[in-house]
Amino acid sequence: MLPSPLLRARMRGGRLLILFARGRKVELNVAKGLISLFESSVGKSLSDLSSRVEDLEKIYEAAGVDYKLYRGLSVLLLRRCGLQRISSKVEPVKARLTVYSVVNNLFGGFLPSDKLRGDVLRRAAGILGVGESELEESMYSDSEDAIIVREFRGINAPELLKTYNLALLQTALFKAASLTVETSAPGWEIKPLLRDVKYRGLMYTAYRIDKSVRIVLDGPSSLIKMTTRYGTAMAKVVPSIVSLSNWCIRASVVKKVSGRPKYLTLFVDDSMRKLFPERRFRVESFDSAVERDFYRIAQQAGWKVEREPEPLVSGKDIVIPDFKVSINGIELYVEIVGFWTAEYLKRKIEKLRRLRSRIIVFADKRLACSSLQKLPMEVVYYDGKITPVQVYKALSKYRESRTEEVDVETVKRVLKGEIVDLKMAARRSHIDLRILEEEAEKMDEYLVIGGTAIHKSLSSRVSAVVKEGGFITYGEAYRALLDMGIPEEYHVPVLEAAGFSLKWRGIDIKNALIIRKRVSDGFKDGAMGKA
To answer: Is the pTM here over 0.70, yes or no?
Structure first.
């Protein structure tokens, strides 16, 4: 990250456009010139380096180079220097304070004549137990003249420009009101990002969007306190984001215009990948022998096993299961719960309870607590070591469920209520999700939208309520849907079942327009308020 005054960006049409370095000839020349200057400064004083940097800036400035680019690159290169202060007998601050104390005691704070300077130094040196020359050297041993450039960690010009671009993006996001990341990267890539987010104490909310995950980070401007500290933390997760195999960043950035805060939209995605440093992910080994054993046994049983697959959304959190196993079109997730702290186990169980994906939990026998037993999924207990029999038995139920016949009466018993989460119903009934979806679609009573079966009577009532309310945005319809007893997580599929779709306007879903998508209902395409 760079000092805020060095951010290179423009405002256009409510958007913040960052002026990234694109590797142009002039940018490469500036980078090469600065790198050469820093390399030749090893062994010299910091003051000498600073002077040379200033002289070179004047030359580039005369050639029309943006001073923000030059100074930004200089800041990054200075961070690659190893500095060493010349050793002194006394800490410089202590030396100065002692001299000032003597002057204050003898002369009331001001030295009457330079002729008395030697006397002051002798007295101060006596107090500190050093010689006069040693004291004088110590007094200014923290100045730039006394700091030596001990080493410089080299870098080439193209890589320096990529590092600069990353720093620009971090600087722009330092005062973000919110930051939204959308990615369909595998779980083993997203896991380091989530660790980074949690380690830095950031607040986030997660959503599942088709095959992608949307992670919304609350920005520092949304907080009352610790704005600078939180903004720095948010900026520091940016390297983890741009390292994903695919990503999209949308942010609302606060910028003062004429003394007033203005919210600007910042958009960056992986089409700009080449502008940033490449970071290679390290594929971690198994967390435990139990995980390694499950992986081996499941593969031997004929299942395709994927470690740390795509993330699942649990409420407003993200869960990355240990495994995803599949065979003959059947897919399910596996979570290995070892022996952890009580607090960790509590959080783990709460997340698992909210999951609506089909999942099997293998838990250490020592964790046979009531909370685990109440989970709406199968829990298999192992005693120190997982056995092939346990894995075969647990997986075989789902393998066989694909070919079993499911009659209409069985499906009717499973489909109860106006809203049925088919993933949850499949887990509880041990009926394959695809079969359950197919059978539900054949019935006249329900519409299947995004893994949810919605009774047609409910969709008709929702259609009437939205129409009568004249709602234009989802935010306006939000309360009416809650009053109808529809949980927030089912609002989107229920609206789709009622013949609507949402047209996003920015990162806040409540600003999304409600669009009538079925002409047969007698409405033209457009916002409901305009239909």
So the answer is: no
